[in-house]
Specification:
The chain is of the alpha+beta class. About 35% of the residues lie in helices and about 25% in strands. The protein has eight helices and 16 strands. The strands form four sheets. It has a five-stranded mixed sheet with strand order 2-1-4-6-5, with helices on both faces. The protein is elongated. InterPro entries: Thioredoxin-like_sf. Keywords: Membrane, Transmembrane, Transmembrane helix. It comes from Candidatus Magasanikbacteria bacterium CG_4_10_14_0_2_um_filter_37_12. This is Thioredoxin-like fold domain-containing protein.
Length: about 300
């Protein structure tokens, strides 16, 4: 009897195992084990939970990326957007030849700026006096670029090469190209008096006013006054003796021309600077093919014809 009971027990155990196998897998399929997360009832819920987590993480990452890219985009737009501002030029009315800083103004206008207002302000006006006091100008004309916003580094980098940074909203230019008003002693510097010294007896000699006037203009010299003298006149004779002039026609420039570095730096090649500051032109041959009178030999020098 024990043997029969044992056989029956084994038979029941075998049937139970077969039933479990049938409930686990379909015919011909490989048996698989599913791992369930705590709190889930079946594999489908586990898969949905994992997909949900991935979606949330992806949403957060994309949101952070979008936020950062938006900031970069705003920064790029800000850099390319023109710098808004106002341009003011302060000029002294007592110096009509001092100009209005047109070169500097043109340079600023060519940059990435949007000028909301451009005005010329008289130094003698209430506004002009207020600007002079506030920014302590040393020379006039002077120019200001004023902005309600902080001046961008890209704009400042270009403009500050020729200007002075006062604060994050202001740039200042002071004109040092003659003529200009020196605020320390309230004197206008760079207005040159010119004396043209000619020889009326030399009808072949070059026209000193025509030739020398054009040369001075090329160097940007602001002429305050012009005087034409003949060497036979009393004043002419006095100038010949004072500066030991040996070649005419010639010109004599007042000391104010020293403000023009382009001329003063090369003047030794064509003339002399006298002890009283006067500049005397002495080398007519430097003008090229012109006819002039050599007073040392008392001969008219005529250039050779080609």
């Amino acid at each position: 009897m024990l043997t029969n009971s044992k056989k029956e027990h084994n038979q029941d155990l075998k049937e139970d195992l077969e039933k479990k196998d049938e409930g686990c897998c379909d015919d011909g399929e490989t048996k698989q084990k599913y791992i369930s997360l705590p709190g889930t009832k079946n594999p489908t819920e586990t898969l949905l939970l994992i997909l949900g987590i991935i979606f949330i993480l992806n949403f957060l990452v994309m949101g952070l990326f979008t936020f950062r890219m938006s900031g970069k985009l705003d920064e790029a737009i800000s850099i390319t957007k023109p710098q808004e501002g106002t341009l003011l030029v302060v000029v002294p009315e007592e110096c009509p030849l001092c100009g209005a800083m047109d070169i500097e103004k043109s340079f600023v206008e060519k940059q990435n700026v949007d000028l909301l207002d451009t005005r010329t302000v008289s130094a003698e006006s209430e506004e002009g006096q207020s600007l002079i006091k506030k920014y302590k100008f040393e020379h006039l004309p002077a120019m200001l670029f004023l902005s309600d916003d902080t001046i961008k580094s890209s704009v400042k980098k270009v403009l500050q090469e020729s200007s002075k940074v006062v604060d994050e909203n202001t740039l200042v230019w002071e004109d040092k190209i003659p003529p200009y008003l020196n605020m320390e002693d309230n004197k206008i510097l760079g207005l040159v008096d010119v004396i043209y010294l000619a020889d009326a007896s030399c009808t072949e000699c070059y026209d000193v006013r025509q030739v020398q006037r054009s040369i001075l203009a090329q160097f940007g010299v602001a002429v305050n006054s012009e005087t034409l003298l003949d060497i036979q006149s009393e004043e002419g004779q006095e100038l010949l003796a004072r500066y030991t002039i040996t070649s005419v026609p010639t010109i004599i420039l007042s000391s104010e021309v020293d403000e023009y570095a382009t001329i003063s730096n090369i003047w030794s090649q064509v003339g002399t600077k006298e002890q009283d500051g006067t500049f005397v032109f002495r080398k007519n041959e430097a003008l090229g093919k012109v006819t002039y009178n050599d007073l040392k030999t008392n001969k008219v020098i005529i250039p050779e014809k080609e």
